[in-house]
């Protein structure tokens, strides 16, 4: 057998025809275009998590966990908790934060509209994923916070990119962290030793065409040699 072609069987789960740059610039927060009626193959979800575990973690501890909820009655209870928690822990936005959020007229209204839609339909989203990490950082300094959260979010984002590559849509939601204890009790997560990082609804997307989002000009965020 030719070495170059050895093992080149078709992937078990087809991937979208996207360049790496397209993948990185079109992985959107999907709320309105989640297909609520199409089931997600558990093996596909497992593959996305497997890809995510290639992300780096501090001291290579690999102590992330992904709680995957598909059972309808558990999803319904989780969705109720999510609705109870959303917005509870939010701090008010500064004028500068508001300016950035409204970088394009109507962009924030679109977010609120999507949030309302998600809130009304969360129990119908086929998969709810709760990313977690071992070790709590409550009350610890920025150094410990950075290494703990930094050990999880690269894997979380890799999971979301892998999902997009396979035709799935996701949106990271942290608004429910106010009810983290209730979620832990519902799902049997050991709250005293494991931190949740939010909840990610996952479903096939309605259509696969997504565009880069309007963002503030890159020169507003780049600082050369000093702030
Ligand atoms: C740390 C973080 C927390 C977020 N929390 C929520 C949330 O609680 N609920 C929600 O609907 N979206 C949440 N989002 C999604 C943002 O609202 C989303 O990134 C924004 O709508 C921009 O979407 P875009 O990247 O597709 O432009 C969160 C995103 C991040 C990065």
Quick summary:
The protein is of the alpha+beta class and 227 residues long. Helix content is 38%, strand content 11%. Strands 1, 2, 3, 4 and 5 form a five-stranded antiparallel sheet that branches.
Please tell me about this protein's structure.
The termini are far apart. Helix content is 38%, strand content 11%. Strands 1, 2, 3, 4 and 5 form a five-stranded antiparallel beta sheet that branches. It has one domain (20-207): 3-Layer(aba) Sandwich (NADH Oxidase). By secondary structure, the chain is α+β, with helices and mostly antiparallel strands. Helix 3 runs antiparallel to helix 7. The chain is globular. Bound molecules: flavin mononucleotide. Flavin mononucleotide is lined by residues 28-29, 111, 115, 118, 171-175, 213.
What features would you highlight for this structure?
227 residues, alpha+beta, NADH Oxidase, five-stranded antiparallel β-sheet, 7 helices, disordered N terminus, binds flavin mononucleotide
């Amino acid at each position: 057998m030719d070495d170059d072609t050895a093992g080149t069987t078709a992937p078990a789960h087809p991937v979208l025809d996207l360049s790496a740059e397209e993948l990185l610039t079109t992985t959107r927060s999907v709320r309105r275009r989640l297909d609520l009626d199409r089931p997600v193959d558990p093996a596909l979800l497992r593959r996305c998590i497997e890809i995510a575990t290639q992300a780096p973690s501090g001291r290579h501890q690999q102590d992330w966990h992904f709680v995957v909820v598909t059972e309808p009655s558990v999803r319904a209870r989780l969705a109720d908790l999510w609705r109870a928690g959303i917005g509870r822990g939010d701090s008010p936005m500064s004028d500068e934060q508001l300016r950035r959020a409204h970088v394009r007229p109507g962009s924030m209204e679109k977010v609120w509209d999507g949030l309302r839609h998600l809130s009304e339909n969360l129990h119908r989203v086929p998969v709810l994923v709760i990313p977690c990490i071992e070790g709590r950082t409550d009350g610890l300094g920025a150094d410990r916070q950075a290494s703990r959260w930094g050990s999880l979010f690269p894997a979380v984002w890799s999971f979301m990119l892998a999902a997009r590559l396979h035709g799935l849509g996701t949106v990271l939601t942290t608004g429910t962290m106010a009810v983290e204890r209730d979620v832990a009790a519902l799902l049997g997560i050991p709250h005293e030793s494991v931190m949740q990082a939010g909840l990610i609804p996952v479903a096939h997307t309605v259509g696969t065409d997504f565009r880069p989002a309007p963002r503030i000009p890159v020169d507003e965020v780049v600082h050369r040699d000093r702030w």
